[in-house]
């Protein structure tokens, strides 16, 4: 079989990224230009600003990815791109660039679902992973428990009904006066705080449901902060961070382990930006050790948005012959079912 050398592009939120991935596992280059510093002064991602910055950087990151891999566009076998979900103006920049390159160089085009990309971040570090797997996808835009039966065969067992978990981290951090993105800062602060100093709710939802809800928890933190301020009481941000993070992790880990038990899955994956959270990694590792299950996390660079994970997912689409045509468009709310 010929080598599949995929040029992958990712621009769904605030990272402009390009990578070259060989046969779905070997990362020849992985270039990420993050806009975090730009959005920090607004306290979150400003979609219009994100699109403009993607336009400025997209060709630069693509050229750099080819250069670092020491390849020309001619040597690439396909061009892959995230086409959803995400910010539509941001996605469009990547999709337009991928289509132009595929058309100009006469290469096949592959459209990748962003969540599928996050899942495949795991395969870059653990090429030997075997199905079936259960993946907890936790990012700024998504919270899903996904049953992976085979490459390309997924069932979403549960998702958030309101805020994504990363979104809840960022909103709570903002209310505590921390900068964007708040997830890593809460993670750090939580290590110094005492979660027992305040009691926060957990939304378990109906018996047997693998769905999540984080808006009640977020509101509880905001109410607590307002109350303390009104009463001129001290706010120990480390304690708030620890209690919030503990409440989030409690629900994520309990539901993931329940799903693993019900569906008899022995290998569990974490994916998405919040998979970088040290408390979540530790709690899931402990729960898996107790239940006699394997757990895998992508290295930090493949947790947050990057194009190498898109190239890994695209490889399996290429070998299944799932190519897109030039009518491929950005889809902001691309449903999970569209992965299949
Ligand atoms: O996957 P990602 O880069 O973008 C989306 O697809 O959404 O995830 C970004 C999210 C942000 O909400 C950020 O605060 C969160 O991941 N995040 C973390 C940590 N590192 C990143 N959340 C908690 N703990 C972390 N260490
Ligand atoms: Zn993401």
Q: Could you explain how this protein is built, in words?
A:
Helix 2 (47-69) packs parallel to helix 3 (88-105) and helix 5 (165-175) packs parallel to helix 7 (215-230). The chain folds into 2 domains: 5-119 and 303-339, ATPase, nucleotide binding domain (Nucleotidyltransferase, domain 5, 2-Layer Sandwich), CATH 3.30.420; 131-298, ATPase, nucleotide binding domain (Nucleotidyltransferase, domain 5, 2-Layer Sandwich), CATH 3.30.420. Helices cover 43% and strands 19% of the residues. The protein is of the alpha/beta class and 340 residues long. The strands form 2 sheets. It has a 5-stranded mixed sheet with strand order 3-2-1-4-5, sandwiched between helices. A hairpin with a 4-residue loop joins strand 6 (133-138) and strand 7 (143-150). It has 10 helices and 10 strands. The radius of gyration is 20 Å and the shape is globular. The mean pLDDT is 95. 5'-O-[(R)-(carboxyoxy)(hydroxy)phosphoryl]adenosine (KG4) binds next to helix 5 and helix 6. Zinc ion binds at residues 114, 118, 139, 272-273, 305.
